[in-house]
Amino acid sequence: xxHSPIVASVLLVDDKPAxxxxxxxxxxxxxVNMVRAVSGPxxxxxxxxxxxxAVLLDVRMPGMDGFEVAREIxxxxxxRFTPILFVTAGDDPDEAMMSAYALGAVDFLAKPLRSEVLKxxxxxxxxxYRSKEELRARDxxxxxxxLEAKDARYRALFESxxxxxxVIQLLRDAxxxxxxxxxxxxxxxxxxxxxxxxPVGRNISDLVPESQGRWLDIYDRVARTGEATRFxxxxxxxHRWFDVYALRLGPDGSDLLALVFSDITQRLTAENDMRRLNxxxxxxxxxxxxxxxxxxxxxxxxxxxxxxxLHLMRLAGGKPEMLERTRQMMERQVQHMVHLVDDLLDVARxxxxxxxxxxxxxxxxxxxxxAVETSASLIDAGGHKLHVELPAQPLPMDADPTRITQVxxxxxxxxxxxxxxxxxxxxxxxxxxxxxxxxxxxxxxGLAPDALSKVFEMFAQVPNSxxxxxxGLGIGLSLVQSLxxxxxxxxxxxxxxxxxxxxxxxxxxxAKGDEMTTETNAxxxxxKPGQLQVLVVxxxxxxxxxxxxxxxxxxxxxxxxxxxxxALQVAQSHPLDVVFLDIGLPxxxxxxxxxxxxxxxxxxxxxxxxxxxxxxxxxxxxxxxxGFDRHLTKPAELPAVEELLRLAAEAKxxx
Length: 655
Prior knowledge:
Blueprint: E1 9-13, H1 17-27, E2 33-37, H2 40-49, E3 54-58, H3 66-75, E4 84-88, H4 93-102, E5 107-110, H5 115-160, E6 164-172, E7 178-186, H6 188-194, H7 204-207, H8 213-225, E8 229-235, E9 240-249, E10 256-263, H9 265-300, H10 303-316, H11 320-351, E11 360-363, H12 364-381, E12 385-389, E13 396-399, H13 401-417, E14 424-432, E15 435-442, H14 449-452, H15 476-486, E16 490-494, E17 502-509, H16 519-526, E18 533-537, H17 541-553, E19 557-561, H18 564-573, E20 578-582, H19 590-598, E21 607-612, H20 617-626, E22 630-633, H21 638-654
Parallel strand pairs: 1-2, 1-3, 3-4, 4-5, 12-14, 18-19, 18-20, 20-21, 21-22
Antiparallel strand pairs: 6-7, 6-10, 8-9, 9-10, 11-13, 14-15, 15-17, 16-17
Helix pairs in contact: 1-5, 2-3, 10-11, 11-15, 12-13, 13-15, 18-19
C-alpha cells in the first residue's frame, strides 16, 4: 500500500501490553503512527491532544470499560466522528456487538484476531482519513490562494488611490473617553498627505504631539453612532487642512475606524487667493469707475471758465485790466488741465516702467523752494499759513530735480486740499543717517487708522467731514510713493485720527560732497540766443499760431505750416534752424516729413523737434529713428521751448 504524505495516527487502547504489541505488529505495514493507551482516561487524554484515523478499543478494561470510553468519545466534539473498532474476547460476542454498535462503533472484532483482516479493516479507515485530510488541505490551499489573490487586489487598490487611507483603533481611558488612537494600517499616500513617515503601529500622540482634541471627538461620535461622516478641519500642528471621510468598521461597540482623507491646503489657499483677487478686482473696478467720473468732472471744470474767458475777451475791447484778469484766469485753468494730463501720463509711464529719471547733482533745498512757489497759489487760496524750516547747509542729491519738486509740491497740495480754511502747514527738512528727512504736517481732516494703509493706493481719495472727496484724481500720493521709491527713498503717513491732522514723511538718500550745478546757472552763462529761422508744423491752427506768436515775441522768425506738404515747401524756400513738427498730420505722419526734410539740401544740421501727445520710451525711440533731435510732449512748456532755442542758437553761432 503506497504511503500518503499525510501522516495518519491510530489509537490502540488495551490494559494488557501484550495485546498492544500484537496490534502494533499486525498494523506495522500500514505506515501509520500508533499511539498506546492502557486505560480509558489515558485514551481520552490522547484524543484531546490530536486526531486519529481510527481507535481500536478493548471492551473489558478495569476501572472504565470500553463502552464507557466509547460513550465519552462520542460526547466530545473533536472525537465525535472518529471511527471506533471494538476488540473483545468475551463469551457472548453478540450481546457485546449490539452494545458496541449502539455506541456508534464501526466494527466489532473478536479475539483471536486475524492480522490480515485487522489490517484490511483499519487500512480502510486510514485511507479515508488520509483522503479527507488531503481534501481539506487542498481546500485550504485553494482558500489561501483565493485569499492571497483577494489580498493582492485589495493591496493594489489600497496603494493605488491618491487619497490617504488608514485604519485606526481608538484608545479610551478608564472612563471610556477617547484619549488617543493607534494607526493599524496606512497606504503610501498617507505620508504624502500628512508628511508623517512610518505611521503603522504608532499612536497619533507620538506622531503629532500637539494634535487637536476636536478630531478625537469626531471619531468618538462615529464609533458610538456608526454613522459615517465627512468633514473639513485644519490640523494646526501640521499647518494643513484636510478633507476627511470617517466610517466605523465592525459591529456596535467597535472602535475600529477607516479614514479616507486628502490634504486640501493648496486648494483652500488657491480658493482664498482667488476670492481675494476677485474682491480686489471688484474694488479696482469700482475705483476705476469713480476715477473716470472724477476725471470727467475735473476736466470739465476748467472748460466753463475758459469758455467764459473767450466771451469776456470779445466784450472787453479796450479794457486792458479786464483782458489781463481774463488772461490770468485762463492761464490758471489751462495749467490746471495740463497738470491733470501730466499726472495721468506719469501714472501710465510709472505703471509700464517707462519713466526715465534725469539725475544730476542738485540741492534739495532748491527743489523745496520751487515746490513752495508752485503750490503757493493753492495754499493762499485756502488761507493757510505755511511754515518752512530748512537746515543751513546744502543738501546734495543725485536726483531728478523736476521729479523731486513734483514730490514736494504734491505733498503740499495734498495738505492744502485736506486742511480746512486758515489752517497751518509745516514743511521741515532734517538730515539723519545720511538721509534727508522731509516732513509735511497739516492741521487738516486727518486719517482714520484703516485709511493709512490705503492712502498711497492709485485713485484713493479721503472723504472730508461731509463724506465727499476734496477733488483731484486721487493719484498724487501714489505718484509721490512711486517717484520716491525710484530715487531709493521711502514715504510714510501718520495721523492721530480723524480731525487731528496728518504727517507725511519722505526719506531720500543724500549724495556725498557738496558740488552743485543748476540749470539756472547754465542758462545764465549761455546768454541770450540770436535770431533763428523756426518752422512750426501743426494741423491745430490755434496751437501753431500761438507758438508762432511766442517765437516772434522772443525775436525769432517764425514760419507756420499745417500739413506735411506745406512744411516741405517752406523748407525748400527758407533756410531753417529749428523745426517744431507735429506727428499727427492730415496728409502724412511727422515721421515721414522728418525723413524727407533730412534729404533736402542744408537740412542735415537743422534741429528737428517732435511735438506729440505720446511720450513713452518707444515713441521717443521712433522719433530718433525718423531723424528727430528732440522730443516734446504736448502741450510744450515755454521753458523747454526756450532751452531748445538756446541750444540751437549756440550751435548756429559755433558754426
